[in-house]
Model the fold of this input.
Amino acid sequence: MRTHTSRRGFLQFGLSAAGAALAPRWALAQAANAPSSAAAQADPGMIPVKSTKLADNVYLLQGTGGNMVLQTGSDGLLLIDASFAPAVPRIREAIAALAPAAISAPGQLINTHWHGDHTGGNEGMHAAGFSILAHRQTRDRLSHTQVMQLFHRTVDPSPAGALPTQVFDSTMTVYRNGDTLDLVHFAPAHTDSDIYTHFKNANVLHLGDIWFNGMYPFIDEGTGGNIDGMIAGSKLGLEIADSSTKIIPGHGPLGTKEELAAYHEMLSAVRERVAGLKKQGLSEPEALAKKPTAEFDARWGKGFMAPDVFAGIVYRTV
Done:
């Protein structure tokens, strides 16, 4: 049974993936015991946004939604992602603490993909003077009703003020505040709308939800996501980064190339194991009964995505 929800309702729902809505009916017993994200269940409007300095004018902002990056400077503020709608006042407080004179100046907001924990604050940040830039598919997804297949949810179109007004198809270069930013669209991976942003001078790379640092990732198979794209995306991140690059995951702590490499290796290994079981003719529940993620569960299975739920997505998208 599907639940229809407004965009705001979906934002409140977030990506807290423990519980019955996440898994096929036969997997409910396992999924019910999955750890949930306390941050995702908290009120986004009540949680302060923490800032971490990454370079002279580049900061990591972390609240209840996806990880954000702020760049300050004379060309105006640039923000990557906008968390949940109720978090906008907390985001603006964090920005004001870092760049008090610039909070009312025109800014640029970049969306890494369409999901509400990254775009929910679009309308509020647009009202605060930010124009919105994203991949063309992000605007398309936000403009139409979407189905969150794993969560059995439909999501209403976003209001006009939340839609990107500038879009690109493959790559785009932004020159801002003394840096050159490469914006590049991934092949379908977490969704079909994912991009990365590389601050070339600051040596900061925001991968969006291609990377969930320290946890199994959510792959939105209903909007184009698949395990092969996640593997290719993490490999591309490794090719871009060097040993000094500060790598921002969509969720989880600030990361390193070594941590991203471990994540990439985990994705590749699970994919191969699940694909092998599927090739043998095992059904999805039969394949999951073989515990293809068992070797990795201690390190990666403590996030909001239960091991069997993640393995099920791999099975269905391999």
